[in-house]
């Protein structure tokens, strides 16, 4: 986010990560594969998610999980192949692409490198993760100061980031790909000329879609002025376009 402004215009493709670019929650996936006994901590959490995830990777390290093991597992998360093909197609069409995610930078970088897709993205915008000298991962909130957004967790307001991207990049069109309730705040920042690609059923293994829920609830749906298009697998499929997403 510290780069100088780019040439304005063109399409900016913004990808949510969990359940959008990949077909999993990367945080729970890594814990379930490596030390499933830690899974119960997700349902009994008393802190924010990012704080809990920092504690989960601390526990993984305490239980002998090495850096290379962790990176290998996060890199092999389940995907929808159509979404990865869409990244390659957008890259060939010279669209600028960023990942905007409430996961963390290390998990996303490890995955993109394994898929050979890192060069397709100009930015990975997520909670900051870093290995220390001993090989333990630390995860910190994206925002140093909570932005105080009523729609978002204190560690990351995707809407605020989207506004900064609009100022910095001046795209003539944004395509935003998302699935969850955390994608609603940035969806509200999109303009009428932008496109909101919203995951919708049938799209296994998910049954509930937090973003779609907000878009089918009239008071919150009215806050989104972008064109809404539902997606299911990421593959070339007849796009199900409906302004009210009903
Ligand atoms: Mg998501
Ligand atoms: Zn927000």
TrEMBL record:
Keywords: Hydrolase, Magnesium, Metal-binding
Binding site for substrate: 27, 102
Record bears the keyword Metal-binding: yes
Cofactor(s) the protein requires to work: Mg(2+)
InterPro entries linked: HAD-like_sf, HAD_hydro_PyrdxlP_Pase-like, HAD_sf, Pase_PHOSPHO-typ
Single GO MF annotation: metal ion binding
Active site (record annotation): 16, 18
Binding residue positions for Mg(2+): 16, 18, 179
Record-given protein name: Uncharacterized protein
Protein source organism: Effrenium voratum
